Amino acid sequence: MEQNGESHLKEPLLPASSGASPAGASPRKERKTRKVMFSVRGISCASCAVSIETVVAGLKGVESIQVSPLQGQAVVQYRSEETDTRTIKEAIEELNFEVDELQEQEIAVCRLRIKGMACTSCSESVERALQMVPGVKKAAVGLALEEAKVHYDPNVTTRDLIIEAVEDAGFGADLISSGDDVNKVHLKLEGLNSPEDTKLIQTVLETAEGVNHVEWDTVEQTIKVAYDPDITGPRLLIQCIQNAAQPPKCFNATLHSPPKQREAERNHEIRNYRNQFLWSCLFSVPVFLFSMVLPMISPYGDWLSYRICNNMTIGMLLRWLLCSPVQFIVGWRFYIGAYHALKRGYSNMDVLVALGTNAAYFYSVYIVLKALTSASFEGQDFFETSAMLVSFILLGKYLEVMAKGKTSDALSKLTELAPETACLLTFDKDGNTISETEISTQLLQRNDVIKIVPGTKVPVDGVVIKGQSHVNESMITGEARPIAKKPGDRVIGGTVNDNGCIIVKATHVGSETALSQIVQLVEAAQLARAPVQKLADKISRFFVPTVVMAAFLTWLGWFIPGQFHLYPKHWIPKAMDSFELALQFGISVLVVACPCALGLATPTAVMVATGKGASQGVLIKGGNALEKAHKIKAIIFDKTGTLTVGKPSVVQTKIFSKIPLLELCDLAAGAEVNSEHPLSKAIVEHTKKLREQYGSHSDHMMESRDFEVHPGAGVSANVEGKLVLVGNKRLMQEFEVELSPEVEAYMSETEELARTCILVAIDKIICGALAVSDPLKPEADRVISYLKSMGISSIMVTGDNWATAKSIAKEVGINQVFAEIDPVGKAEKIKDMQMQGLTVAMVGDGINDSPALAAADVGMAIGAGTDVAIEAADIVLMKSSLEDVITAIDLSRKTLSRIRLNYVWALGYNVLGMPVAAGVLFPFTGIRLPPWLAGACMAASSVSVVCSSLLLQLYKKPLHVEEAPRPTDGTDLV
């Protein structure tokens, strides 16, 4: 930090991207220009290449083409709005050349909100429909998240065609985001009076440097701009709009916050199900009263038995009139769902509900018409079965949607952590602050300087450039204690500044912040399908047809014996015949079996677990990693930065004379302050801490002269008129300093502990020594011990020397050690263990350990800091704490246990419910499950599974190690 002036505050902390153009550069090329490569067979000479180039270059939209006869390749540059790869490929094939599939394809990604999915069959149907779209490379559909992530080739298909495919499958689809709008801003425009003004602003923005995509909403008068944060930012875009106006016109743009789509749609879905349930109840309750209650209460229900025509009664007519709106208006959603499912060749819950309600309704209509036309016919209608069945199913869906909303609570809380406003500082040319402006956090740009006062949240990721404070990062990392921050330290957006005012320069804004990346990782994890989900997928394929067959056999199994009087006549309830009894049993079997609960068993548990893990500083990248972690039998630990802190520090001091400890350290630090060696920095830092302990808070070190570095030995300097030597035994021998037996013994003792012994001599007399080491993390030994109790073996693999490795391993309790191994060797060790049938995890710092992290069954990156998107790791431990290794494994075990319980619960409903619904208990106990009660059971099954998953919200870490207070200097005085 400079002592005078603050000009450094204006200097960019991060260099501009290499792709950035200087101010005033010519407008960039339109992004819709694409490049594609074909493999062309049959090119025999240069004239073949020329003919291909001539024909393709003549196509509309083709900007350039290069054909290589030797490699048999054609590279085409074209405008996607005027032509496509298929047209180009066909043009080459018309010249009698064989064109292979594209060798290089541009892959784009988009996320869609899927509406109307009810069970696993629905999500599989959407996935199949997406994968059938030409150009779609990969599609993942999350049932619980109600989203789809699609990887596609924009040269072959478009987002509109992908959405159409989902809609053709019978589901709704809305675009959430695409790959080119990760960094985007919504602006509300004012002052536009004509279409020319709109076109002007759109042109100005599209030609602005760093703008990737512009999307206009003419109804709301808003514009969405996707941009490159390395080149531009929201405030520059607003300025572009304002500068586009020619007097007397005046354009103005303000930040627009569109409603949160997921939350708005969730609330809309909840309201929709609630309203449908209430409308259904409005008709179903009277039907129930007229059918089940009033006829039992004489004389109040006698009027329902009055005949209107022949044997048709008032009760029949009222039940028919009241049930019909429930069946065909409120229940229309089940018809639509069943139609689209059967059209696509699969079956789902809607098919079961439609079959059950239609069987009850149309049989009841038959009874009414028969009674209307016959004076002697007597029969019992089932209108209450149809109406109440729809009502209970809608109630179950209403409760299920509300419960599913709770599964993403942890993620919602993360997204709300960032503050709405920030205090932006403006400086003059001399670096002096001239203004403090409160602006929206969304308007912050890279390299902005912001002021954060005590008690406020950090708006974006950045680096402290002035001031000191403690920052509470528990909401991001789960670390309970506030972390000290000083100039040069990084801060994370969404954390809380506790007790000091700090000036921060923004390094990551928008979607690049740690908070945004955490949310993106968790959302991706929730969308990924866990391997255990395959069980539900397999069952769901034949589940509904099996249930339909079981219902038919149930009806047949009761109807035929009834017709031949094979069971006592008193089994048949009054006002019923054998056909109606059999029909009720069949309908009950149809509706009691619900595939929804089975489909929700895994994704809801994964959603809750990944969200809970993120809130505690453990980022699990998908259901695959979550499932594998519970199988871990061996964990390989790196040493530096994993088992150890990764920062050398003085762990012990020794005095060999009567000189005070503080004076010894002051002299040593005075000699070392000009050195950049890590050990020198450790001595200087130790001296500062020692001063604080003794009541001195000065950072000023003693003046030194004649400073000299002795490579491989140490340093020498004249400090306060004294010759100070700080180094190893070799330095002392070089200056002919005598080593006493006591010093020799201390050096040997220190080296046995794998520590570096630094001797301090004043005027050629050794006055003391400092033992420097990379200390173990305080929780290391407890974590290794706890892993052993979990049946997991711990192994250390490091590139350090054997003496250090064995000493560290002995201290933490690791028995198996591999030392002096390079990163590739670590990966080979993991593969050797995997060959023995072990599921192996690797815990490393995510940089030089990336080959091992990728090779392991589960890679855990520790020491991630704000860079949470470590590609090689399956799990990111944000706190850099070894406790979270146990947390990740334990959370995995708890989640898999919960998923199994969900499967037992979901299948248990069907295994126990279907026989009861089929009437197994009826001959012995007289107990039967009416269709409306079977519907209530079916609805309860889905709700119960979601609530079971929600219990994971109560998860607590199995191990939490509090750092024990240690002596500040670790001094041994003799």
What features would you describe in this structure?
GO terms for molecular function: ATP binding; metal ion binding; P-type monovalent copper transporter activity. By secondary structure, the protein is of the alpha+beta class. The chain is built from 30 helices and 37 strands. The chain has a seven-stranded mixed beta sheet with strand order 24-36-35-34-25-32-33, with helices on both faces. It has a seven-stranded mixed beta sheet with strand order 27-28-29-30-31-26-37. Strands 16-15-17-23-18-21 form a six-stranded antiparallel beta sheet, with no helix packed on it. Helix 12 runs parallel beside helix 17 and helix 28 (883-917) packs antiparallel against helix 30. The model is unreliable at 1-5, 15-31, 865-869 and 963-974 (pLDDT under 50).
Number of helices: 30
Q: What is the first-to-last residue Cα distance?
A: 40 Å
Q: What does the main sheet amount to?
A: 7 strands, mixed
Strand order of the largest sheet: 24-36-35-34-25-32-33
Categorize the overall geometry: globular
- Say how many strands there are: 37
- Mean pLDDT across the residues is 79
Radius of gyration: 37 Å
Helix content: 40-55%
Classification by helices and strands: alpha+beta
Residues in β-strands, percent:
15-25%
Low-confidence parts, pLDDT < 50 over ≥5 residues? 1-5, 15-31, 865-869, 963-974
